[in-house]
Amino acid sequence: MAHGAIDGLLNDWADANRLQVSTDYRDEEVRSLDLVSRKGKRYQIWLDAPRNGRVGVHVWNYKERRVDLDIAQTELIAALDTVLSAAHQWMRDEK
Question: In this predicted model, what pLDDT tens digit does every residue of 15-27 receive, in sequence order?
Answer without folding.
Answer: 999 999 999 888 8
